[in-house]
Each structure stands twice: as structure tokens, then as C-alpha cells.
């Protein structure tokens, strides 16, 4: 509503100021040569001689842009009234400054591009001042929003899901893109988008120091994934870099999340082979690792015996249920995360097999389950 009212006000200002300007120029003959103002001709009347004092005033005014000066005197209340009106428009909606900025910008550039419009430096000056005021209000609004997002405290009982700061960012982008859909220029909006996106990313990063009841990497992964999907749908040029960054960030946190939780199904086996790799890194020859008491063939067999195929499958099922419980269903990240876990599990399995071949060659020691078994476990869990 405020946008429509403002558009109407601006539409009616142009002809009003133009008509007054034409009258002034005609009445005072201000469009003629300033060096020869001898008479004032009024339509329908004979020429009348001008008093010396008026001649002097007109001569002075012609040197000082008299039309603009006279219009500013006639419409002296226009700029203060417009300022007050814009203030009301800004308060009408949380993002009312956006509507004001777009409406003013389009109106001004439309007038500048119109060949039929009579140029009025007075009106241009007034509208230019209003545009500067609108930009200032818009920047203050964005600054406040950025501060609110960055300083927002995480809900104490948060169990995952999308952060309020991310939702506020989306709300602003949706509203602003609709407002600027037909706008001729969007430089100010692009700057605002980048500022807000940086603030949202900082807000998500602050989770690393928050005392959450759920896995921090999971929450950060979900939120960066959500932002990436949102920006993919919106296709905003200035945010292409942020879209790529969001994808990179959610991939990083998903990797951390997967690695942390994958250590659980084969925790002791994983711990054993981490020790094997550490000994090799310290300079122990691969063929001599089995002579280390803690990493002997007998110790390896004991660890492997703790992970028969049935137990591994049961552990994976438990892990799947846990992930399903905490991941937000709205994001549909479960298939993505589970596939990443499958790939990481396969990588670990292949690494374990490789270490057995290199460090325990000829021992005949093998895992209790094969690669085919492992793939069937994941497949059956996914389909269940």
C-alpha cells in the first residue's frame, strides 16, 4: 500500500512542478536573453513597463537560476513533507525502506530518461535528496539486521535444524528480490545481499563455540546445505560466490560428521590400525610391525573377532537410526549423509585390508566380512 501511495505522490509532483515552472518562465520571460528584459508580456494584455526594482531583481535572479529559486520558495514545504512521508513509509513494513528505495530510484531514472519531461533542477534536487535519504535508511536497516544476525544467541535447547538467522536471511532475500524484480538498478541490493550473507555465515561459524546438545558439525552441515539449496533456487548473480562457499562448507562439515560417527561401528578396529599407521610413520618397517607387542598378529585377531559380519550390520543399523533421529527431515539430507558414510566406510575397509596385506603378509588374517557383504549391509539398511 505504501509503495502505491508513494508512486502516486511522485507521479503528481512532476506535472505540478512542470506547470509551475512553465508559468514562471512565461510570466517573467525568464527564457529570453537576460541582457534585454525591458517589458513583461502577459498573454492577452499589452506590454507593460517593468519597475526598476523588479528589473533589478529579475536580472539578479537570472544570474542565480531564478526558476529554481522561485520554485524552492513556492514549494518550501515540499522537502520536509516528503521526508515525513518517507519516514511513515519506512515504518509501515519491517523492510519498508526497500520499497521506498526502489520506488524513488525508478521514478527518478524514469524522469531522467523521458524526453518529453521538462527538466526541473528544483525537482531533481528534491528527489535526489530523498533518494540519498532512502539509501541512508536502507543501509541503516541492513546494518541493524546484520548486527542482529551476528549477535543472535543460539536457543539453549536447540536440537538441530535451521537457525533463525538463516531464516531471516531467506526472508529478506525473498522480499527484496520481489521488490527489485522490475527495478532498473540493483547495486544497493547486491551490496546488502553480500553483507547479510557474510553475517549469516559468521552466525553459523559461531556454533563451533556453542554448547549444543547435538553434534555441532551436523547442525553446521544442515544450515550450509540449506543456504546452498536456497541460493541455487534463487540464482542471484552477486551471491554465486557465496553459493559455492556454502557448498564447500557443508561438504567440509559433512566429512567431519561422517568421520566422527563412523569411528563408532568399528571403533576398536579403527583404533588398532591408527596405531599401526603411527608406528610406520615413526619409522618402524611394515614387515616388523607385527613384532610389536600391542600390534602382534594375535592382538589383530582378537580385535577382528570382535567384529563379525552380523555385529557390523547391527552397528550400522543403530548408526542409521541415530542419524535419522537427529537430521532435519525438511532438508532430506539423510540419503546424502548415508551415502557419504557408505563411501567413507568402504574407504576405511579398503585401508584396513591394505594394511593387513602390507604389515601382516602371509598371516592368513582377513576381516570377518567381505566388500560384497559390506555393500549388501548398506543396501538392505537403505531399503528398510
Considering the chains and any ligands shown, give keywords for the structure.
384 residues, mainly alpha, 3 domains, two-stranded antiparallel sheet, 15 helices, 70% helix
Would you write up a description of this structure?
GO terms for molecular function: phosphatidylinositol-4,5-bisphosphate binding. This is EXOC1 protein. It comes from Thinocorus orbignyianus. The chain is mainly alpha-helical and 384 residues long. It has 3 domains: 2-133, no CATH class; 152-253; 263-383. Helix content is 70%, strand content 1%. It contains 15 helices and 2 strands. It has a two-stranded antiparallel sheet with strand order 1-2. Strand 1 (39-40) and strand 2 form a beta hairpin. Helix 1 (2-27) crosses helix 3 and helix 7 packs antiparallel against helix 8 (187-205).
Radius of gyration: 36 Å
Strand content: under 5%
Number of helices: 15
Number of domains: 3
Give start-end ranges of low-pLDDT stretches: 32-48
GO molecular function: phosphatidylinositol-4,5-bisphosphate binding
Protein name: EXOC1 protein
Domain Exocyst complex component Sec3 C-terminal: 67-362
InterPro entries: Sec3_C
Helix-strand layout with pairing:
Blueprint: H1 2-27, E1 39-40, E2 48-49, H2 52-63, H3 66-74, H4 78-92, H5 96-112, H6 121-151, H7 164-179, H8 187-205, H9 216-234, H10 240-262, H11 267-281, H12 297-305, H13 309-326, H14 334-359, H15 371-383
Antiparallel strand pairs: 1-2
Helix pairs in contact: 1-3, 1-5, 4-5, 4-6, 5-6, 6-8, 7-8, 9-10, 10-14, 13-15, 14-15
Organism: Thinocorus orbignyianus
InterPro entries: Sec3_C
GO molecular function, one term: phosphatidylinositol-4,5-bisphosphate binding
Amino acid at each position: 500500500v505504501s509503495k502505491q501511495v508513494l508512486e502516486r505522490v511522485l507521479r503528481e509532483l512532476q506535472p505540478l512542478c512542470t506547470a509551475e515552472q512553465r508559468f514562471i518562465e512565461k510570466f517573467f520571460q525568464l527564457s529570453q536573453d537576460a541582457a534585454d528584459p525591458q517589458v513583461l508580456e502577459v498573454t492577452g494584455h499589452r506590454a507593460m513597463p517593468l519597475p526598476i526594482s523588479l528589473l533589478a531583481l529579475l536580472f539578479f535572479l537570472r544570474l542565480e537560476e531564478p526558476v529554481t529559486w522561485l520554485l524552492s520558495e513556492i514549494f518550501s514545504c515540499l522537502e520536509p513533507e516528503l521526508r515525513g512521508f518517507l519516514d511513515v513509509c519506512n515504518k509501515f513494513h519491517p523492510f519498508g525502506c526497500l520499497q521506498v528505495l526502489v520506488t524513488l530510484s525508478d521514478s527518478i531514472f524514469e524522469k531522467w530518461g523521458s524526453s518529453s519531461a521538462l527538466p526541473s533542477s528544483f525537482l531533481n534536487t528534491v528527489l535526489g535528496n530523498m533518494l540519498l535519504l532512502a539509501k541512508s535508511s536502507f543501509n541503516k536497516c541492513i546494518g541493524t539486521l546484520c548486527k542482529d544476525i551476528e549477535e543472535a544467541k543460539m536457543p539453549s535447547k536447540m536440537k538441530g535444524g535451521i537457525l533463525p538467522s538463516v531464516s531471516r536471511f531467506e526472508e529478506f532475500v525473498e522480499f527484496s528480490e520481489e521488490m527489485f524484480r522490475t527495478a532498473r538498478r540493483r547495486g544497493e541490493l547486491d551490496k546488502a545481499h553480500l553483507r547479510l550473507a557474510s553475517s549469516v555465515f559468521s552466525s553459523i561459524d559461531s556454533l563451533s563455540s556453542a554448547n549444543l546438545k547435538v553434534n555441532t558439525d551436523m547442525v553446521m552441515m544442515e544450515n550450509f546445505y540449506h543456504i546452498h539449496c536456497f541460493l541455487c533456487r534463487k540464482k542471484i548473480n552477486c551471491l554465486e560466490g557465496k553459493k559455492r562457499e556454502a557448498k564447500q562448507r557443508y561438504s567440509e562439515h559433512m566429512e567431519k560428521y561422517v568421520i566422527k560417527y563412523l569411528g563408532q561401528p568399528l571403533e576398536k578396529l579403527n583404533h588398532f590400525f591408527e596405531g599401526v599407521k603411527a608406528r610406520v610413520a615413526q619409522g618402524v618397517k611394515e614387515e616388523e610391525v607385527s613384532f610389536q607387542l600391542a600390534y602382534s598378529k594375535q592382538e589383530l585377531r582378537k580385535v577382528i573377532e570382535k567384529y563379525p559380519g552380523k555385529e557390523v550390520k547391527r552397528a550400522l543399523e543403530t548408526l542409521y537410526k541415530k542419524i535419522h533421529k537427529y537430521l532435519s527431515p525438511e532438508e532430506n539430507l539423510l540419503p546424502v549423509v548415508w551415502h557419504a558414510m557408505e563411501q567413507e566406510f568402504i574407504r576405511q575397509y579398503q585401508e584396513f585390508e591394505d594394511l593387513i596385506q602390507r604389515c601382516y603378509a602371509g598371516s592368513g588374517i582377513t576381516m570377518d566380512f567381505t566388500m560384497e557383504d559390506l555393500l549388501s549391509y548398506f543396501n538392505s539398511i537403505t531399503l528398510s
